[in-house]
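TEACHING EXERCISE
Course module: macromolecular assemblies
Task: Read the component lines below, then compare them to the predicted structure of the full complex.
Student: A.B.
Group: 4
Components provided:
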Amino acid sequence: MKYIDEYRDAAAAKEYAAILARVTTRPWTLMEICGGQTHAIMKYGVDELLPPGVTLLHGPGCPVCVTAVELIDKAIEIASRPDVIFCSFGDMMRVPGTKRDLLSVKASGGDVRMVYSPLDALKLAREFPDKQVVFFAVGFETTAPANAMAVFQADQQKIENFSVLVSHVLVPPAIEAILSSPTNRVQGFLAAGHVCTVMGYTEYEPLARKYHVPMVVTGFEPLDILQGILMCVQQLEEGRAEVENQYSRSVRREGNQPAQKLIREVFRVVPRKWRGIGQIDQSGLGLAERYARFDAEQRFGVADQTVEESSECISGLILQGEKKPFECPAFGTLCTPEHPLGATMVSSEGACAAYYRYRRVAAKEARI
Amino acid sequence: MNIATGSVTEQEFSMTCPVPISQYPNVLLAHGSGGTLMHRLIEQLIIPSFGNPLLEERHDGVVFQLGDVKLAFTTDSYVVRPIFFPGGDIGHLAVNGTVNDLAMCGARPLFLSAGLILEEGLPMDTLRRVLASMQQAAQAANVQIVTGDTKVVDKGKGDGIFVNTAGIGIVEHSQTISPGSVRPGDAILLSGDIGRHGIAIMAVREGLAFESTIESDCAPLAEPALRLLAEGIRVRCMRDLTRGGLASALVEIAEAARLHVEIEEAAIPLREDVQGACEILGFDPLYVANEGRFVVFVDANDAERAQAILRQFPVSENASLIGRVSEGEAGLVTMKSKIGVSRIVDMLSGEQLPRIC
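Instructor-supplied answer key:
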């Protein structure tokens, strides 16, 4: 398939691996931010092509994984109401809240629907004017423009039975939280190509300078990731710390301006609690004042609820690159995709799920 | 707690957060998805309820001796939504699915039953079309629908129409076709491209428009399967790919045979439109449903001849050798990815869910 197979070519992958082995003179620890990249790495076995000194840590870029458990509980509470049609991306359906998940709400009669776009939820709101239609607006900067568009259109078209439960998070504050941690091990980052397609990468330049860490905007196919790693290692070997763009077929330095304008129109930057990590200042998006009436937390009176997270799950350490899934005592034993302790084991982008799905045997060996 | 298998340990009961599967208070959709949850349900609740040696063979159908005759018997229910979809409909599926289950036992399908559960208000014309389609499929597969039952449920208590078919076939060869017959070194053939039925249904159900209409692969498989046997191919095991796709079928066989199955991603036929749809939705085609494809494990020395035989039939004209069986790790399926690295192919816990980004 054109534009896919070229980026999964075995001969080219071997060539990159050979160049990488040649230029690597010291051990380096890199982090791919995005969970989509983590899965591609595991699925295609990119990590097995790396020279022994190059280690990949898996970052917090899985929106499902970092959505605070209290937001999942709020989603479940709202979705259980008889007057509500609750719409969510498929990924969120199986993530455990304190007691249950959205699929269980559906099984016990809640009207929970999987949608492919927030605009589909808006369409439902038009079709069912007697129902409250709520969309679970989850994601990083990647999904923010479409979610913003849904709210913008609801406002324009005066669709008042529509609201959004917002759980948006931002990448640069998460990177800064990792870099400023005293236990940080990350020496270089692969930034997420789709996030930068929307936002560009000017936000990353001051971070690279301040912490003297190279960052390479990277795509999602195996060869993209290998090239991103190579560019990052080359910078480290040469003592450079710049923002470079591997994913130039999609990303411009300034990003997608109309999309950014829409995000700024509908959302404002707010503090946000990350599951497993905790509160990070200015790290999320909430609805701007002008659109506050579309806020589902306010509409359904669930804004003030908080809950404690399970202490058995170490997903926070995994999402910050301090531990690998194999290092968790519960991995593959107490915690599996059928009995997840945390979201990193459920989400299609979660690091634990990727290790479980593609590397269980290696896990057994690592433990022996 | 009444648990028949040893897989749920004391330790897990002490956990507070996730409840073991047997404690789910309600049935989830995932219990019918062909993945791990469904398998646990079967292993922990259904098989123990009826336990007997034939059931415990865990095949799609059962083969048993009756006097001098060896028969195969199977049943399947069909609840597909929408009722009509590109490349087929519920009637077509209900006949072919059961015919295929019999064929995978190495049996020649003879007779089917048809149980219809109709929802009050179903247009008579819809019913007429479904029945016509069942008859057409039955003729094409050379079987007769010889008995049946009809029930009507209140409006809102069904989804238009549900169909159950049971089938009887005759086994006319002496080979034992089951996962237990699989040996290290055996070759694995796949009868054609994967994922088309699942994507066709998904596209209609969710209103996803692709450049071209993707049609279901729904088709009867008895002819090519029986020809392999008639030509003397040493067939070890056959399995049609349904829910859970190629991956789940291979994992089931590897686990039952206690052997290692190794496949190659590049050898698996996949149509470009299906691949494109999977890329957009974040689906792995290995897990997407089929209704007219099967895998067959054969003696390595017969692999080329088996492939040539399969390729004589339109339904399996793209048959390919996709892998081998080895001693390796018992119960494991691994796949060499396109960039040449091996990774595990596991069963999914439930249905694949489209990703966020």
